[in-house]
Amino acid sequence: MFDYNPIIEFDRGKFIRIDVGLEPTFPLFFGRDIEDHFIDTLDRATRHRPVDRFFLLTDAFIFDLYGEPFFDKIQQTFPATDIHLLPRGETCKTFDVLQDVCDRLVAKGVSKRSLLIAFGGGSVGNITGLAAGLIFRGIRFVEVPTTITHQTDGMLSNKQAVNGKYGKNNFGIYHAPVFAWTDTRYTETEPLRFKRSGIIEGIKNGLIDQDACLPFLEHAIRKKGDYSSQQLTDLCFKLIRSKLEILKKDPTERRYGIILEYGHTFAHAIEWLAKGALTHGEAVSIGMKIAAELSLKLGYIDGDAVALHYRLIDDVLALRPRLPEHLNPANIFGTMYVDNKKIGSDVRYVLLQRIGQCRKENGDFLVHVDEKIVRRVIEEFFQNYVA
C-alpha cells in the first residue's frame, strides 16, 4: 500500500519517470516547471524511429496561456511542426470534429511516421488520441495534459473516445501514447472550480479502494484553492498514485479496473444532459452521492459511509454544483440506458461494500439492481438535493 502521508518535495525543473503499468504501458514524466526538458525527452523517445512531421493539437484558450512558447520550442528543434486548434471543451468530442481533424492532418501531409502532440485537457487528449489511433490504422502521439482532471485521471488510461447523439463516450478505442508529460505549472492558473472538479476523482479512488488516501486528502485539500506550487505538485502526485495503485491490479482497465467507474453511470447521464453547465468532476460528485445512496438502500453500506461522501465532497472540497433546471430523474434514468456498462438491456452499477471496497457479485464488480429501486433512489436524491 502506498504511503500518502510524507510530503514529497519536487524541485522546480526536476522530473521523475513513472511507469503507469497499463497494457500497453507508457512512461509518465512528472514534475513542476519542467517544460525546458520536453524537447530532449521527445527526441530520445523517437530517436529509434524518426518523426517526419509533428502536429500540435490544442485549443485557443490553452494556446494563449501556454501554447505559443511551447510550440515555438518544438518548432525551433523540429521545423516540420504544424499546429491545429480545436474547439474548447466537450464540444470538440464529436464525429464532425474528429473527421475535420483527420482530414486536415491528411491535407497537411501526415504520414505513418508523423506524431501528434495533445496539449490541453481531457477533450483535447481524447480527440488527439482517437485521431492518432485511426489515421492510417494508428500513428504515434504524446500527451501533455494541462488540467488537474487530465493530469491525475483522464490521461492515466489508454481509452480515447468521442460523444454520440445519445450519450457521452459512446464511441472510442484503446490507443496508448508514446509518453505523457505532466508539468503541474500548467495547473497553477486553473480556476478554482476546475481545480475542485479535478480533485474529485482522487476522492473517488479513496472511497473505492485507496482508503489510506482519504486522511491525506482531508489535510491537503485547500477549500479556497490557495495552494503553493509545492503543495499543488504534491497533491497531483498523490492523486496520480491513487489511480495507479488501482490500475496495478488490472492493467487492462476491463476487470477490477471497472471500479474506477464508481458513480459514473449516473455522472455521464447528468453531464450529457447538462450540455456544458456542469464539468465532468461536478457530475461525478453528484453521481458518487447517488451511488452511495443506492448502496445504502441495498444494505451494502451504512449511513456513516454515505455521510463521509457528503463531508468529503461538500465540506472538505466545497464542491456543491447547482443542478440545471431541466435535469430530472426521468431523463437521467433514460440516458443511462446508453451507458457503456450496459449488458443487454440491463444497466449495471459499481457500488460500495464498505469504504475502500466495492461490491462484487458472481465475480463481477458490475452489479445488477432492480430498476424500480434505482428510480426511487434518484427521485429521493433530487427531492433532497441542496447545492
Automatic annotation (TrEMBL):
Record protein name field: 3-dehydroquinate synthase
Start and end residues of each 3-dehydroquinate synthase N-terminal domain: 85-193
One Pfam family linked to the record: DHQS_C
GO molecular function, one term: metal ion binding
Listed cofactors: Co(2+); NAD(+)
Sorted UniProt keywords: Cobalt, Lyase, Metal-binding, NAD
InterPro entries per the UniProt record, alphabetical: Dehydroquinate_synthase, DHQ_synth_fam, DHQS/DOIS_N, DHQS_C
Gene Ontology process terms (BP): aromatic amino acid family biosynthetic process
Domain (3-dehydroquinate synthase C-terminal) ranges: 198-341
